[in-house]
């Protein structure tokens, strides 16, 4: 199981939890597992999120590996110019 930390704006969509445990071995599995466990997260994930694994922000690689002991944060993707 991978423990995923959620930013405060997502907690209401995940039954008030700030951390969610998901069965996953890749970033893509983390995102799909979050939606499966908490369907209310779908719109936020579709709008664009950043995933940080062990202090590295994973820009767009859904195949990036995630270990059970990885520190994983789901963060709001910042847009601007």
From TrEMBL:
Gene3D superfamilies named in the record: 3.10.20.30
InterPro entries xrefs: Beta-grasp_dom_sf (IPR012675), Mopterin_synth/thiamin_S_b (IPR016155), ThiS/MoaD-like (IPR003749)
Pfam families per record: ThiS
CDD domains according to UniProt: Ubl_MoaD_like (cd17040)
Domain of life, source organism: Bacteria
Protein name: ThiS family protein
Source species of the chain: Sedimentitalea nanhaiensis
